[in-house]
Amino acid sequence: MKVTVSRKAHFNAAHRLFRADWSAAKNEEVFGKCNNPEFHGHNYELIVSVRGEVDPVTGYVVDLKILKDLIKSEIEEPFDHKNLNTQVPEFKTLNPTAENIAVVIFNRLRPVIDQNLDLKITLFETPRNFVEYEG
Amino acid sequence: MKVTVSRKAHFNAAHRLFRADWSAAKNEEVFGKCNNPEFHGHNYELIVSVRGEVDPVTGYVVDLKILKDLIKSEIEEPFDHKNLNTQVPEFKTLNPTAENIAVVIFNRLRPVIDQNLDLKITLFETPRNFVEYEG
Amino acid sequence: MKVTVSRKAHFNAAHRLFRADWSAAKNEEVFGKCNNPEFHGHNYELIVSVRGEVDPVTGYVVDLKILKDLIKSEIEEPFDHKNLNTQVPEFKTLNPTAENIAVVIFNRLRPVIDQNLDLKITLFETPRNFVEYEG
Amino acid sequence: MKVTVSRKAHFNAAHRLFRADWSAAKNEEVFGKCNNPEFHGHNYELIVSVRGEVDPVTGYVVDLKILKDLIKSEIEEPFDHKNLNTQVPEFKTLNPTAENIAVVIFNRLRPVIDQNLDLKITLFETPRNFVEYEG
Amino acid sequence: MKVTVSRKAHFNAAHRLFRADWSAAKNEEVFGKCNNPEFHGHNYELIVSVRGEVDPVTGYVVDLKILKDLIKSEIEEPFDHKNLNTQVPEFKTLNPTAENIAVVIFNRLRPVIDQNLDLKITLFETPRNFVEYEG
Amino acid sequence: MKVTVSRKAHFNAAHRLFRADWSAAKNEEVFGKCNNPEFHGHNYELIVSVRGEVDPVTGYVVDLKILKDLIKSEIEEPFDHKNLNTQVPEFKTLNPTAENIAVVIFNRLRPVIDQNLDLKITLFETPRNFVEYEG
Q1: What's the mean pLDDT when you consider all of chain E?
Q2: Of E93, E48, E99, nearest to E71 (Cα)?
Q3: CATH number of C2-15+42-133
């Protein structure tokens, strides 16, 4: 009896899209206004979903208080009110597109979540754009 | 040509998380403030999704008026403005976690929905926590 | 140069509508299913709005971190995961309608917020019903 | 490393549900108030989701500016502020249920989106009813 | 002790903007795509707000069940799944802009709501456009 | 017969809170994580409301197409995907708090909107924090 349990969280961050190995003109051509060298930013809304068997004793797939604390320590604290490009190590060499941010969040959470649980990341970059990654 | 059709509904209910066969201290340790013996409550927002072939004559997978009425009679009327622990029979011996509530809703709707249709329950316990169950 | 600044918060609670000095029949007649003696509950979504001059030095009407902490200590901690009727003192003798809850929240926050600031409470009892109170 | 990328869009349109080969009485019986011969209408909210490999060079599955422009030219311009029954060719012989509208949107977008990408359409007919189609 | 109490409702309708005493060209020039002679439509989301003294006996400004029923009989039933221009009498000679629809709703509700209560109508024509009218 | 008409818009931007005439320590003490020298960012959601007489000829307070275009040229284009501190002139000497951003938006729109219309700005910095300014 498998159930998916999801928890919403959020962080506000600056970023820009660019590749250091490309010219300014090439970055501008490919990434447009997202390439602004002075940065722009978003309220990222994050949904962390875990799927697994319901524990017949507690009725929980996972204790949401524990999941909430993990999201806080692993994602919200290192990402919130930060510049993703300059202050989150993974993005020093990786373009912080919504796709790549979702993958980085997945990779940070995967090791600290029970391996019997499937993990899925949904990340809203804006209320109109979002991405999903399941590993 | 399979399409998934979803209908939103809602009910407001009181509940507490606990096991009658555990001590108060053990319940408190595991369920924290959700174990308040005086109960707390939620506006549960429910999404019932059915998936099946589009009827080439009507263009419907299911008549949403019929689905809406089924959700009303099978779920909203017995759950709305109720105490789940004391007034919904399944939870007299089952902890009313979001996971278990979703399973109970699925089990109540499954027999009254065409067996050719897949059924999925999404249940928001709060705007920030939700669960999904597909049987 | 007056600006209104608003902060959202939330608490989940059980309640019932009734008057101890009325018969069960009278309570049932007036309050209908909201009078369920076993309680029901809601995810109350709260908006606290303060209006005042923008401080020309900081650009703040109020430091939202301070407002957030006040809402947490004065409202969220005493109300969240509680039974309003039995565990929040004001409602031992006051019917916990949305109207009265908003007034109680106002009365709890008014003394701890700068008297130069106007205060307004918006309280969603459900996503479809809400009340506003300005003192 | 596959990621799903989604973009929201919207269009406002009139429609009615009916079959030209049925009597008025039969249409009324099956489609009820949705069969109003004078039409009614909706704000359709559309989510277009594409799933594929993240390009290791750009960090994109798809350039959302390009996807946004495709949705605009293929769906928003021909559907927005239109009468679906009389002004969108597919519905001259097809009942414009939410299910059929989602299929038509899929069929219009599928040829113009990279065949290496999976496509999924989610269409909200109202904030309470929605459908999903993946081909 | 005055509190404002609000209730949300909704109706789906077709409409077009035009004046019968203008040429097609003039209508097109002023109302653009909203003038489509084949109609378009919206999911109108309505908020009805009443403001008055909290009854010290019940704790209510108004019984929301009564308000909900009034909105249903006076607005939802005559407007839902209708063509506003051709099936709602006021709009046979009045352009059904969001502004005018809000005024018409106010004028229909004002006589049936206690004259000691202030009334305010908020009408969302789309999730992005809305109007407010207080008489 | 005065009606308020509102239009939603949005822009994504980077910012930091600080005063150039304060030490880093003082900025850190007052503005906390909002003072991050590497910037952070938000999806600002903007509501522009205008209040005035309904034109008896058109049924409009204002043509929303014109209002939408004004918001685009005066606010969205100069603010979207920008660094407010370094790329929007007003904030070179003004701390870009939500309060000050709302005032700047008001000051940019006031001259281009009919002086017979009242203007109000509502600005969501996050889904949980917002400000309102009416001049």
Answers
A1: 97
A2: E48
A3: 3.30.479.10
Are F114 and F105 in contact by the 8 Å Cβ rule? The answer is no
**What is the DSSP track for chain E?**
-EEEEEEEEEEEEEE----TTS-HHHHHHHHGGGG-TT-EEEEEEEEEEEEEEPPTTTS-SS-HHHHHHHHIIIIIHHHTTEEHHHHSGGGGSS---HHHHHHHHHHHHGGGS-TTSEEEEEEEEETTEEEEE--
Q: Do A103 and D57 touch (CB under 8 A)?
A: no
Pick among D2, D50, D54 to test the A interface (most A CBs inside 10 A): D54
Asked whether at least 3 C-beta pairs link E and C within 8 Å, the reply is yes
pLDDT above 70 covers a percentage of chain D that reads 100
Chain A residues in contact with B17 by the CB 8 A cut-off are 59
The pTM is what?
0.97
CB B71 within 8 A of CB B20: no
- Determine, for residues C61 and F129 on separate chains, whether the beta-carbon distance falls below 8 Å: no
CB contact under 8 A, F131 and C64: no
**Residue ranges covered by each domain of chain F:** 2-15+42-133
Residue pLDDT, tens place only, B49-91: 999 999 999 999 999 999 999 999 999 999 999 999 999 999 9
Helix (H) or strand (E) holding C14: strand C2-15
What pLDDT sits at residue C95?
Answer: 98
Length of chain F as a residue count: 135
Please choose, from the candidates E131, D83, D43, the residue with its C-alpha nearest in 3D space to the C-alpha of residue F64. Answer: E131
In whole numbers, what is the pLDDT of chain F averaged over residues?
A: 97
CA distance D17 to A68: 46
Residue for token pair 């989150």: A88
C-beta atoms of A14 and F41 within 8 A? yes
For residues B39 and C86, what is the distance between their CA atoms, to the nearest angstrom? 10
Kindly report the average pLDDT of chain A as a whole number. 97
How far is it, in rounded angstroms, from Cα F18 to Cα C77?
Answer: 32
Residues of chain C under the 70 pLDDT cut: none
pLDDT tens track for D10-54: 999 999 999 999 999 999 999 999 999 999 999 999 999 999 999
Run of H or E including C63: none
Cα–Cα distance for residue pair B97/D2, rounded to 1 Å: 33
Query: Cα distance from F131 to chain C (closest Cα, Å)?
Result: 4
- What are E11-44's pLDDT values in tens digits? 999 999 999 999 999 999 999 999 999 999 999 9
CA distance E15 to D81: 10
Query: Once rounded to an integer, what is the mean pLDDT over residues F76-96?
Result: 98
Task: Determine A/D contact with 3+ CB pairs under 8 A as the test.
Answer: yes
Region of E132 on the Ramachandran plot (φ > 0 left; ψ -120 to 50 alpha; else beta): beta
In terms of phi and psi (left: phi > 0; alpha: psi -120 to 50; beta: otherwise), the region of B36 is beta
Q: Spot the catalytic one: B34, B74, B76, B99.
A: B34
